[in-house]
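Key result, reporting period 2: structure in, sequence out.
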């Protein structure tokens, strides 16, 4: 099976890239601004570049972990968010469809408002912020226009890789520098290990799944509890984690508070 990963330098795309290479699959990965050995540079908003990659490589599966996931930046720069989170995935979906490839699009739990979580695939999206609205718009288009699409919704993705874009890495850097970490006690969600997410996504592709699938971890925790667990697991005192409310952070974008997703699949399945 041939794979094309658009955004193979990121947290999810990176693990997917490494996993497929370890399994000796035929895979092409792209990066945009963070070069990775043996990957190709590609601006996935440039449809000429993407079309050439798909037509030349003839992938069976096109993966889109690429996105603008910075929720607050999306709120400040909605035009950029639209280009990266709606327009580009929509166009990639059309090219994949026209070339007979399955499309796998990574969405988000932020398509829900967090008033009555955890949510199932059948629940109706009601996003609070630009990021969630744009992801929901991309989902709707792909469901209607790409017949062989698998939309995966994770939540609070994390990993232990030393990458400044990684939540765990950022927390540990602050703790190592001796700083107290402030974490919201009123944001509740279902954190998702990027490695487990990739394993489940590959299993879903191999099953021939399509439509929307929730893929999250087994625990439902507050942001504070998650941060506290990270600190304790790495030998730091719980006193270095300060519980606060989301409102006190004065963030540009609203966050779902009572969130999280329900998944029907067991770990690794």
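The corresponding designed sequence is given below.
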């Amino acid at each position: 099976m041939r794979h094309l990963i658009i955004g193979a330098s990121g947290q999810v795309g990176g693990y997917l890239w490494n996993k497929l290479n370890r399994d000796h699959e035929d895979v092409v990965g792209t990066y945009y601004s963070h070069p990775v050995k043996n990957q190709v540079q590609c601006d996935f908003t440039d449809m000429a570049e993407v079309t050439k990659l798909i037509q030349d490589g003839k992938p069976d599966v096109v993966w889109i972990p690429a996105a603008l996931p910075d929720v607050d930046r999306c709120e400040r720069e909605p035009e950029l968010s639209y280009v990266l989170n709606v327009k580009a995935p929509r166009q990639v979906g059309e090219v994949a469809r026209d070339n007979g490839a399955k499309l796998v699009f990574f969405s988000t739990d932020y398509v829900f408002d967090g008033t009555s979580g955890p949510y199932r695939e059948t629940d109706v999206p009601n996003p609070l912020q630009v990021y969630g609205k744009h992801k929901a718009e991309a989902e709707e288009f792909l469901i209607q226009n790409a017949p062989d699409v698998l939309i995966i919704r994770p939540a609070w993705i994390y990993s232990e890789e030393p990458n400044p874009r990684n939540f765990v890495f950022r927390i540990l850097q602050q703790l190592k520098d001796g700083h107290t970490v402030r974490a919201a006690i009123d944001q509740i969600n279902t954190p998702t290990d990027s490695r487990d997410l990739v394993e489940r996504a590959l299993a879903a592709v191999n099953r021939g799944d399509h439509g929307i699938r929730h893929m999250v971890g087994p625990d439902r925790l507050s942001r504070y509890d998650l941060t506290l667990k990270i600190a304790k697991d790495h030998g730091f005192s719980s006193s270095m984690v300060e519980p606060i409310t989301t409102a006190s952070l004065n963030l540009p974008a609203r966050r779902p508070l009572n969130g999280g997703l329900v998944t029907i699949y067991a770990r690794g399945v």
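The longest strand covers residues 26-31. The chain has a mean pLDDT of 93. This case is discussed further under Risks and Mitigation.
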